[in-house]
Design goal:
Largest sheet: 7 strands, mixed
Low-confidence stretches: 1-10
Helix content: 25-40%
Order of helices and strands: HEHHHEHEHEHEHEHEEEEHHEEHEHEH
Number of strands: 14
CATH superfamily of the largest domain: Type I PLP-dependent aspartate aminotransferase-like (Major domain)
Shape: globular
Structural class: alpha/beta
Distance between the termini: 46 Å
Number of domains: 2
Length: 403
Protein backbone atom coordinates (compact mmCIF):
# COMPACT_ATOMS: atom_id res chain seq x y z
CA UNK A 1 0.00 0.00 0.00
CA UNK A 2 1.45 3.38 -0.96
CA UNK A 3 2.30 5.77 1.90
CA UNK A 4 0.71 8.55 -0.16
CA UNK A 5 -2.69 6.82 -0.09
CA UNK A 6 -4.79 8.75 2.46
CA UNK A 7 -7.02 5.69 2.92
CA UNK A 8 -4.12 3.68 4.36
CA UNK A 9 -4.51 2.58 7.95
CA UNK A 10 -2.21 4.60 10.24
CA UNK A 11 -0.43 1.52 11.54
CA UNK A 12 0.47 0.23 8.05
CA UNK A 13 3.75 1.84 6.98
CA UNK A 14 5.13 0.29 3.84
CA UNK A 15 8.85 0.61 4.58
CA UNK A 16 9.89 -0.45 1.10
CA UNK A 17 7.63 2.24 -0.35
CA UNK A 18 8.90 5.05 1.87
CA UNK A 19 12.51 4.05 1.18
CA UNK A 20 11.77 4.00 -2.53
CA UNK A 21 10.28 7.49 -2.10
CA UNK A 22 13.54 8.65 -0.45
CA UNK A 23 16.43 8.92 -2.94
CA UNK A 24 18.98 9.46 -0.17
CA UNK A 25 18.35 5.98 1.22
CA UNK A 26 20.21 4.62 -1.80
CA UNK A 27 23.28 6.71 -0.95
CA UNK A 28 23.77 6.79 2.82
CA UNK A 29 22.69 5.41 6.18
CA UNK A 30 21.17 8.57 7.55
CA UNK A 31 20.63 8.50 11.31
CA UNK A 32 20.89 12.26 11.80
CA UNK A 33 17.16 12.91 11.58
CA UNK A 34 17.18 15.04 14.74
CA UNK A 35 19.42 17.37 12.72
CA UNK A 36 17.85 17.21 9.27
CA UNK A 37 16.04 14.30 7.66
CA UNK A 38 16.26 12.99 4.12
CA UNK A 39 13.27 14.41 2.21
CA UNK A 40 10.90 12.21 0.21
CA UNK A 41 10.61 12.73 -3.53
CA UNK A 42 7.29 14.55 -3.21
CA UNK A 43 9.03 17.26 -1.16
CA UNK A 44 11.91 17.52 -3.62
CA UNK A 45 9.46 17.82 -6.51
CA UNK A 46 7.39 20.48 -4.75
CA UNK A 47 10.44 22.68 -4.16
CA UNK A 48 11.88 22.21 -7.63
CA UNK A 49 8.60 22.67 -9.47
CA UNK A 50 7.79 25.88 -7.60
CA UNK A 51 11.24 27.33 -8.24
CA UNK A 52 11.08 26.37 -11.92
CA UNK A 53 7.78 28.23 -12.12
CA UNK A 54 9.42 31.30 -10.58
CA UNK A 55 12.18 31.07 -13.14
CA UNK A 56 9.69 30.98 -16.02
CA UNK A 57 6.90 33.26 -14.76
CA UNK A 58 8.41 35.46 -12.06
CA UNK A 59 8.13 35.36 -8.30
CA UNK A 60 4.92 37.31 -7.76
CA UNK A 61 3.16 35.73 -10.69
CA UNK A 62 4.09 32.24 -9.46
CA UNK A 63 2.78 33.04 -6.00
CA UNK A 64 -0.53 34.20 -7.43
CA UNK A 65 -0.76 31.03 -9.53
CA UNK A 66 -0.04 28.86 -6.47
CA UNK A 67 -2.05 30.88 -3.92
CA UNK A 68 -4.52 28.05 -3.11
CA UNK A 69 -1.66 25.62 -2.52
CA UNK A 70 0.14 28.15 -0.32
CA UNK A 71 -3.00 28.64 1.75
CA UNK A 72 -3.43 24.86 2.03
CA UNK A 73 -0.14 24.73 3.94
CA UNK A 74 -1.89 26.42 6.87
CA UNK A 75 -4.72 23.90 6.89
CA UNK A 76 -2.25 21.01 6.82
CA UNK A 77 -0.16 22.56 9.59
CA UNK A 78 -3.27 23.14 11.70
CA UNK A 79 -4.19 19.47 11.31
CA UNK A 80 -0.65 18.50 12.26
CA UNK A 81 -0.59 20.66 15.40
CA UNK A 82 -4.22 20.34 16.48
CA UNK A 83 -5.20 23.99 16.18
CA UNK A 84 -7.04 26.43 13.92
CA UNK A 85 -5.40 27.54 10.67
CA UNK A 86 -5.58 31.18 11.86
CA UNK A 87 -3.26 30.18 14.71
CA UNK A 88 -0.43 29.04 12.40
CA UNK A 89 2.46 31.16 11.18
CA UNK A 90 5.06 29.89 8.72
CA UNK A 91 8.58 30.93 9.74
CA UNK A 92 12.16 30.29 8.69
CA UNK A 93 12.94 27.91 11.56
CA UNK A 94 11.85 26.86 15.01
CA UNK A 95 14.34 29.32 16.50
CA UNK A 96 12.81 32.15 14.49
CA UNK A 97 9.36 31.06 15.62
CA UNK A 98 10.50 31.05 19.25
CA UNK A 99 12.04 34.52 18.97
CA UNK A 100 8.94 35.95 17.35
CA UNK A 101 6.81 34.62 20.19
CA UNK A 102 9.27 35.58 22.91
CA UNK A 103 9.78 39.18 21.80
CA UNK A 104 6.02 39.73 21.79
CA UNK A 105 5.64 38.83 25.48
CA UNK A 106 5.42 42.03 27.58
CA UNK A 107 8.18 41.59 30.16
CA UNK A 108 9.35 44.21 32.62
CA UNK A 109 12.09 44.39 35.21
CA UNK A 110 11.43 42.12 38.21
CA UNK A 111 9.05 39.92 36.22
CA UNK A 112 9.95 36.24 36.61
CA UNK A 113 10.52 33.78 33.79
CA UNK A 114 10.71 30.05 34.45
CA UNK A 115 12.90 27.97 32.13
CA UNK A 116 13.79 24.30 31.92
CA UNK A 117 17.27 22.85 31.76
CA UNK A 118 16.90 21.66 28.17
CA UNK A 119 16.84 25.07 26.51
CA UNK A 120 18.46 25.32 23.08
CA UNK A 121 21.13 27.96 22.59
CA UNK A 122 18.98 30.36 20.55
CA UNK A 123 16.24 30.61 23.17
CA UNK A 124 18.70 30.57 26.07
CA UNK A 125 20.49 33.57 24.54
CA UNK A 126 17.23 35.49 24.38
CA UNK A 127 16.43 34.68 27.98
CA UNK A 128 19.86 35.84 29.12
CA UNK A 129 19.33 39.13 27.29
CA UNK A 130 16.05 39.57 29.16
CA UNK A 131 17.88 38.94 32.44
CA UNK A 132 20.29 41.75 31.60
CA UNK A 133 17.25 44.05 31.43
CA UNK A 134 16.18 43.09 34.95
CA UNK A 135 13.94 40.09 34.27
CA UNK A 136 14.50 37.34 36.83
CA UNK A 137 15.17 33.84 35.53
CA UNK A 138 14.36 30.78 37.64
CA UNK A 139 15.38 27.26 36.63
CA UNK A 140 13.00 24.31 36.68
CA UNK A 141 15.03 21.32 37.82
CA UNK A 142 15.21 17.96 36.07
CA UNK A 143 14.39 14.86 38.06
CA UNK A 144 16.46 11.65 38.15
CA UNK A 145 14.32 10.30 35.30
CA UNK A 146 15.43 13.17 33.07
CA UNK A 147 12.01 14.82 33.10
CA UNK A 148 10.82 18.19 34.36
CA UNK A 149 10.46 18.18 38.13
CA UNK A 150 6.77 19.07 38.36
CA UNK A 151 6.80 19.48 42.14
CA UNK A 152 9.63 21.97 41.92
CA UNK A 153 7.88 23.75 39.05
CA UNK A 154 4.82 24.21 41.24
CA UNK A 155 6.95 25.63 44.06
CA UNK A 156 8.33 28.33 41.73
CA UNK A 157 4.95 29.68 40.65
CA UNK A 158 3.71 33.01 41.97
CA UNK A 159 2.06 36.18 40.69
CA UNK A 160 5.38 37.55 39.42
CA UNK A 161 5.81 34.72 36.89
CA UNK A 162 4.92 36.15 33.48
CA UNK A 163 6.48 33.62 31.12
CA UNK A 164 7.27 29.90 31.26
CA UNK A 165 9.53 28.28 28.64
CA UNK A 166 9.39 24.50 28.25
CA UNK A 167 10.99 21.99 25.88
CA UNK A 168 8.99 18.93 24.89
CA UNK A 169 11.94 16.80 23.72
CA UNK A 170 15.55 17.80 24.56
CA UNK A 171 17.96 17.78 21.63
CA UNK A 172 20.56 15.77 23.57
CA UNK A 173 18.52 12.82 24.85
CA UNK A 174 15.33 10.98 24.04
CA UNK A 175 13.05 11.77 26.97
CA UNK A 176 9.58 13.25 26.41
CA UNK A 177 8.67 15.90 28.95
CA UNK A 178 5.14 15.90 30.47
CA UNK A 179 4.14 19.20 28.91
CA UNK A 180 0.38 18.91 29.40
CA UNK A 181 0.83 18.17 33.10
CA UNK A 182 3.30 21.03 33.48
CA UNK A 183 0.99 23.53 31.76
CA UNK A 184 -1.97 22.39 33.87
CA UNK A 185 0.04 23.06 37.04
CA UNK A 186 0.97 26.51 35.75
CA UNK A 187 -2.64 27.40 34.95
CA UNK A 188 -3.69 26.61 38.52
CA UNK A 189 -1.29 29.13 40.02
CA UNK A 190 -0.66 31.99 37.60
CA UNK A 191 -1.64 33.60 34.31
CA UNK A 192 1.78 33.34 32.68
CA UNK A 193 2.35 32.89 28.95
CA UNK A 194 3.67 29.41 28.11
CA UNK A 195 6.00 28.85 25.14
CA UNK A 196 6.78 25.24 24.25
CA UNK A 197 9.75 24.30 22.07
CA UNK A 198 8.48 21.40 19.99
CA UNK A 199 11.44 21.30 17.60
CA UNK A 200 12.32 17.66 18.27
CA UNK A 201 8.73 16.49 18.71
CA UNK A 202 6.86 17.53 15.58
CA UNK A 203 7.10 14.87 12.90
CA UNK A 204 8.04 11.99 15.20
CA UNK A 205 5.26 12.31 17.80
CA UNK A 206 1.55 13.17 17.59
CA UNK A 207 1.09 16.78 18.72
CA UNK A 208 -2.10 18.41 20.00
CA UNK A 209 -1.44 21.95 21.17
CA UNK A 210 -5.03 22.30 22.40
CA UNK A 211 -4.49 19.34 24.72
CA UNK A 212 -1.12 20.70 25.83
CA UNK A 213 -2.75 24.00 26.75
CA UNK A 214 0.21 26.18 25.77
CA UNK A 215 0.04 29.67 24.27
CA UNK A 216 2.86 29.29 21.74
CA UNK A 217 4.44 26.19 20.21
CA UNK A 218 7.38 26.09 17.81
CA UNK A 219 8.40 23.55 15.18
CA UNK A 220 10.88 23.13 12.34
CA UNK A 221 10.49 21.64 8.89
CA UNK A 222 13.89 20.10 8.31
CA UNK A 223 14.03 17.55 11.14
CA UNK A 224 11.39 14.86 11.72
CA UNK A 225 8.95 16.42 9.25
CA UNK A 226 11.42 15.74 6.41
CA UNK A 227 10.86 19.17 4.89
CA UNK A 228 13.32 21.72 3.49
CA UNK A 229 15.79 23.66 5.59
CA UNK A 230 14.75 27.25 6.22
CA UNK A 231 11.18 26.41 7.21
CA UNK A 232 9.39 26.40 10.54
CA UNK A 233 6.01 26.74 12.21
CA UNK A 234 4.64 28.82 15.06
CA UNK A 235 1.38 28.07 16.81
CA UNK A 236 0.08 31.27 18.41
CA UNK A 237 -3.17 30.95 20.34
CA UNK A 238 -5.72 33.56 19.39
CA UNK A 239 -6.73 33.63 23.07
CA UNK A 240 -3.57 35.51 24.08
CA UNK A 241 -2.71 37.70 21.09
CA UNK A 242 -4.45 40.74 22.57
CA UNK A 243 -2.08 40.48 25.57
CA UNK A 244 1.04 40.51 23.41
CA UNK A 245 3.15 43.37 22.11
CA UNK A 246 3.02 43.77 18.34
CA UNK A 247 5.88 41.83 16.76
CA UNK A 248 9.15 43.78 16.66
CA UNK A 249 10.13 42.74 13.13
CA UNK A 250 7.37 43.29 10.56
CA UNK A 251 6.81 43.95 6.90
CA UNK A 252 3.81 44.57 4.71
CA UNK A 253 2.53 41.03 5.19
CA UNK A 254 2.52 41.27 8.99
CA UNK A 255 -0.05 44.03 9.05
CA UNK A 256 -1.28 47.20 7.41
CA UNK A 257 0.08 50.76 7.40
CA UNK A 258 -3.20 52.66 7.75
CA UNK A 259 -2.17 56.08 9.01
CA UNK A 260 0.80 58.39 9.20
CA UNK A 261 2.13 56.54 12.24
CA UNK A 262 -0.36 53.71 12.54
CA UNK A 263 0.42 50.08 11.80
CA UNK A 264 -2.24 47.45 12.53
CA UNK A 265 -1.00 43.86 12.95
CA UNK A 266 -2.51 41.18 10.76
CA UNK A 267 -5.22 38.98 12.20
CA UNK A 268 -4.14 35.82 13.97
CA UNK A 269 -0.72 34.28 13.79
CA UNK A 270 0.14 35.80 10.41
CA UNK A 271 1.27 38.92 12.26
CA UNK A 272 4.40 36.90 13.08
CA UNK A 273 5.28 36.26 9.43
CA UNK A 274 7.40 37.99 6.83
CA UNK A 275 5.94 38.30 3.36
CA UNK A 276 9.35 37.78 1.78
CA UNK A 277 10.35 34.14 2.21
CA UNK A 278 11.56 31.19 0.13
CA UNK A 279 8.14 30.17 -1.19
CA UNK A 280 9.56 27.14 -2.96
CA UNK A 281 10.58 25.85 0.48
CA UNK A 282 7.12 26.64 1.86
CA UNK A 283 5.68 24.48 -0.92
CA UNK A 284 8.06 21.73 0.15
CA UNK A 285 7.02 22.16 3.78
CA UNK A 286 3.40 21.69 2.83
CA UNK A 287 4.26 18.53 0.92
CA UNK A 288 6.25 17.22 3.90
CA UNK A 289 3.39 17.83 6.33
CA UNK A 290 0.90 16.10 4.03
CA UNK A 291 3.26 13.14 3.63
CA UNK A 292 3.57 12.76 7.42
CA UNK A 293 -0.19 13.08 7.89
CA UNK A 294 -0.80 10.43 5.25
CA UNK A 295 1.48 7.93 6.97
CA UNK A 296 0.04 8.83 10.39
CA UNK A 297 1.86 10.28 13.38
CA UNK A 298 0.84 7.40 15.65
CA UNK A 299 2.39 4.91 13.23
CA UNK A 300 5.50 7.07 12.94
CA UNK A 301 5.82 7.34 16.71
CA UNK A 302 5.60 3.58 17.11
CA UNK A 303 8.17 2.77 14.45
CA UNK A 304 10.62 5.48 15.51
CA UNK A 305 10.33 4.40 19.14
CA UNK A 306 10.95 0.77 18.25
CA UNK A 307 13.99 1.60 16.12
CA UNK A 308 15.43 3.82 18.87
CA UNK A 309 14.88 1.10 21.49
CA UNK A 310 16.63 -1.39 19.21
CA UNK A 311 19.53 1.01 18.74
CA UNK A 312 19.92 1.48 22.51
CA UNK A 313 19.86 -2.27 23.05
CA UNK A 314 22.50 -2.90 20.40
CA UNK A 315 24.72 -0.04 21.56
CA UNK A 316 24.58 -1.18 25.17
CA UNK A 317 26.06 -4.51 24.06
CA UNK A 318 29.31 -2.76 23.08
CA UNK A 319 31.56 -2.59 26.18
CA UNK A 320 33.14 0.72 25.15
CA UNK A 321 29.78 2.47 24.61
CA UNK A 322 27.82 4.31 27.30
CA UNK A 323 24.20 5.18 26.46
CA UNK A 324 23.20 8.41 28.19
CA UNK A 325 19.42 8.57 27.72
CA UNK A 326 17.48 8.86 30.95
CA UNK A 327 14.79 6.43 32.03
CA UNK A 328 11.67 8.53 31.43
CA UNK A 329 9.38 8.04 28.42
CA UNK A 330 11.71 7.98 25.42
CA UNK A 331 11.47 8.72 21.71
CA UNK A 332 13.76 8.66 18.68
CA UNK A 333 16.86 10.42 20.02
CA UNK A 334 19.59 8.06 21.22
CA UNK A 335 22.57 9.68 22.98
CA UNK A 336 25.81 7.87 23.72
CA UNK A 337 29.58 8.19 23.99
CA UNK A 338 32.39 5.86 22.97
CA UNK A 339 35.21 5.41 25.45
CA UNK A 340 38.38 7.18 24.40
CA UNK A 341 36.99 8.81 21.24
CA UNK A 342 35.68 12.37 21.08
CA UNK A 343 32.02 12.50 19.91
CA UNK A 344 32.95 14.76 17.03
CA UNK A 345 35.58 12.28 15.89
CA UNK A 346 33.02 9.46 16.07
CA UNK A 347 30.77 11.41 13.69
CA UNK A 348 33.65 12.20 11.33
CA UNK A 349 34.81 8.60 11.16
CA UNK A 350 31.30 7.27 10.57
CA UNK A 351 30.66 9.81 7.85
CA UNK A 352 33.63 8.42 5.91
CA UNK A 353 31.69 5.15 5.57
CA UNK A 354 28.43 6.99 4.76
CA UNK A 355 26.81 6.59 8.17
CA UNK A 356 25.43 9.90 9.42
CA UNK A 357 25.08 10.88 13.08
CA UNK A 358 25.61 14.13 14.98
CA UNK A 359 27.61 15.28 18.00
CA UNK A 360 25.86 18.17 19.81
CA UNK A 361 27.80 19.73 22.67
CA UNK A 362 27.43 22.30 25.42
CA UNK A 363 27.47 25.16 22.89
CA UNK A 364 24.02 24.00 21.81
CA UNK A 365 22.48 22.76 25.07
CA UNK A 366 24.66 23.71 28.03
CA UNK A 367 22.53 22.95 31.07
CA UNK A 368 21.33 19.49 30.10
CA UNK A 369 24.79 18.21 29.21
CA UNK A 370 26.64 19.77 32.14
CA UNK A 371 23.99 18.39 34.51
CA UNK A 372 24.95 14.92 33.26
CA UNK A 373 28.71 15.65 33.44
CA UNK A 374 29.05 15.62 29.65
CA UNK A 375 30.65 18.05 27.21
CA UNK A 376 29.15 16.42 24.11
CA UNK A 377 27.35 13.26 23.04
CA UNK A 378 26.99 11.24 19.87
CA UNK A 379 23.37 11.44 18.74
CA UNK A 380 21.73 8.73 16.66
CA UNK A 381 18.19 9.52 15.58
CA UNK A 382 16.52 6.86 13.42
CA UNK A 383 13.39 7.76 11.47
CA UNK A 384 10.66 5.49 10.16
CA UNK A 385 12.44 5.05 6.82
CA UNK A 386 15.50 3.60 8.55
CA UNK A 387 15.89 -0.14 9.17
CA UNK A 388 17.28 -2.44 11.82
CA UNK A 389 19.94 -3.47 9.30
CA UNK A 390 21.16 0.13 9.08
CA UNK A 391 21.41 0.30 12.86
CA UNK A 392 23.32 -2.99 12.81
CA UNK A 393 25.75 -1.46 10.31
CA UNK A 394 26.36 1.51 12.63
CA UNK A 395 26.87 -0.76 15.64
CA UNK A 396 29.21 -3.05 13.70
CA UNK A 397 31.35 -0.09 12.66
CA UNK A 398 31.54 1.22 16.24
CA UNK A 399 32.45 -2.26 17.47
CA UNK A 400 35.54 -2.24 15.27
CA UNK A 401 36.97 0.68 17.24
CA UNK A 402 37.13 -0.98 20.66
CA UNK A 403 40.56 -0.95 22.16
Amino acid sequence: MSPTDRSAKPEAIDIDAVRSDTPGCREVIHLNNAGASLPPKVVIDAVQNYFRSEAMLGGYETFDAHAPAMEAVYSSAAELLGCQREEVAVTGSSSEAWWRAFTSVPLEARDRVLIGRSEFVSSAAGLFQAAERGVELAMIDTGPDGLLDLDQLESLLDERVKLICLTEVPMTQGVINPIAEAVAICRQSCDAIVIVDGTQAVGQLPVDVAALGCDFYTATGRKWLRGPRGTGLLFASTDVLDRMHPPIFVDGAAGAWVGERTFIPADGAKRFEFGERPYANVAGLGAAIDYALTIGLEAIETRVGNLAAYARQQLEAIPAVAVHDNVGPRCGIVSFTLDGIDPGDVVTRLRKVKIHLAAPGTRASYFDLVDRDLQAIVRAAPHYYNTEQEIDAMVAELGKWQR
